[in-house]
Write a structure and sequence with these properties.
Elements lengths: L2 H15 L4 H8 L3 H9 L6 H11 L3 H5 L7 H5 L5 H9 L14 H16 L3 H4 L3 H14 L2 H25 L2 H16 L4 H18 L2 H18 L7 H20 L3 H18 L12 H14 L3 H14 L13 H17 L3 H14 L1 H6 L1 H13 L5 H10 L2
Helix pairs in contact: 1-3, 1-22, 2-3, 2-4, 8-10, 8-11, 10-11, 11-12, 12-13, 13-14, 13-15, 14-15, 15-16, 15-17, 16-17, 17-18, 17-19, 18-19, 19-20, 19-22, 20-22, 22-23
């Protein structure tokens, strides 16, 4: 059975457990009954926003619908799941860690390794990243707790980044409870780092988790407060590039939130605010591991339209921007974080399936795999899209079937 069928089957089974009709669930999840029927039959894949709304209406976590964590096929071969128990132990004992058995390496060495881990995270390379995290977190924890003054603040700053990488790994693998714990640890370390922007980053991560769970009102309050806080941190109305990038990232998150909450006018307003920040930066940046700039604004504009169900307009935007480059469709510039680019192609593939372009969807999935294979393999939207392509493929194309097998469908 394909992943798309699994998703639809799970929705249908959960609906029946809750003793709800299609119309009742559709009304609670703010989707049409016909759309919900397409989700349940596997004729259409629910976007991330719809999954969050359906999960909330069914009183379950999104993972109950997506079927995460995935433990079949390539995931069991990669053994990336093997680090999860150790990470749970480390996050549980964050303020009272076990002994190391040997002195931790100097902070400068740990910082260099953390930079490497951060790069792996941004490129979606979870398989090589995972085994590095337990020891790195343990050593940074001991340095942070045992040192004093500026060195202690610096250790907590690097530890916050380590917890962020742990959050990403847990979230992408589908261990959402561990992801939420890691976010709280980011906040704990950030509060001790002496860096106000790191504290904003920690709160931003928590708001992102709220958006994924569909708690839009709470997330909106947090994000709006963060946008104001970054503004206040600017000296006499002048903001640094890092402040502009973080504020812009907050506005982009708000744009996605409003799109998923069915408020397109507000979404466009937030997008415009993010675009204004990117105009001041003029180039793409990665301050505090947040990809932000003109390219990411466009990526989010497309994602926002797809989340709103306006797939045709999203694809039209790609053609419009492609014309500016003398191409059929927009091509992302070099230097953008691989995970971000891969995510974009996965989103676009889902939009193409909804618009009936199965060949184009397959090509976008192949691009996503080539750019960030670990990220792609664990992504629920890629799996559901690949499964739909197999189900709709009357000619039984070996290339489509082979891709689905690679994805673990």
């Amino acid at each position: 059975m394909s992943t798309a069928q699994h998703v639809g089957t799970r929705i249908r089974e959960l609906r029946k457990i809750r003793k709800m009709t299609v119309r009742q669930l559709a009304a609670k999840a703010a989707v049409s009954a016909s759309t919900l029927q397409k989700y349940e039959s596997g004729d259409r894949n629910p976007p991330a926003g719809a999954i969050a709304q359906l999960a909330q209406a069914l009183h379950v976590g999104p993972d109950k619908i997506t079927g995460q964590p995935y433990m079949n096929g390539a995931e069991s071969e990669d053994q990336v799941q093997a680090v999860i128990p150790e990470l749970r132990r480390i996050l549980l004992t964050f303020d009272n860690p076990d002994g190391l058995g040997a002195a931790p390496r100097p902070l400068r060495v740990l910082a260099a390794e953390m930079e490497h881990v951060a790069r792996l995270r941004q490129d979606g390379r979870y398989v090589p990243m995972g085994p590095l995290l337990p020891r790195l977190l343990s050593e940074l924890t001991h340095v942070a707790l045992d040192s004093r003054g500026r060195e202690q603040q610096q250790a907590f700053w690097w530890l916050a980044r380590g917890y962020r990488a742990t959050n990403s790994l847990a979230h992408k693998l589908g261990y959402h409870d561990l992801s939420l714990t890691a976010i709280e640890r980011v906040r704990w370390a950030a509060d001790r780092s002496g860096d106000s922007l790191m504290q904003v980053t920690a709160a931003y991560l928590k708001a992102g988790a709220m958006v994924r769970l569909g708690t839009f009102a709470s997330a909106r309050r947090v994000l709006e407060g963060l946008a104001d806080e970054v503004e206040r941190l600017g000296s006499e109305g002048s903001m640094s590039d890092a402040q502009l990038a973080i504020q812009g990232a907050v506005y982009l998150k708000l744009a996605i939130l409003e799109a998923r909450d069915g408020r397109p006018a507000r979404a466009q307003q937030r997008l415009a605010e993010a675009r204004a920040c990117s105009a001041l930066l003029r180039s793409d940046t990665e301050h505090y591991e947040m990809s932000f700039g003109p390219t990411n604004v466009r990526i989010h504009e497309v994602a926002m339209l797809i989340d709103s169900g306006d797939n045709g307009r999203a694809l039209a935007k790609l053609r419009e921007w492609g014309a500016e480059q003398g191409r059929d469709e927009w091509g992302l510039p070099d230097g953008i974080a691989a995970e971000r680019v891969s995510h974009h192609h996965i989103d676009v593939a889902a939009a193409r399936v909804a618009e009936g372009d199965r060949a184009g969807a397959h090509q976008d999935l192949l691009k996503a795999r080539r750019i960030a294979p670990n990220h792609s393999r664990f992504h629920p939207t890629l799996r559901s899209t690949a499964a739909t392509l197999v189900r709709l493929d009357r000619g039984q194309d070996d290339a489509v079937a082979g891709f689905a097998r690679w994805a673990g469908v």
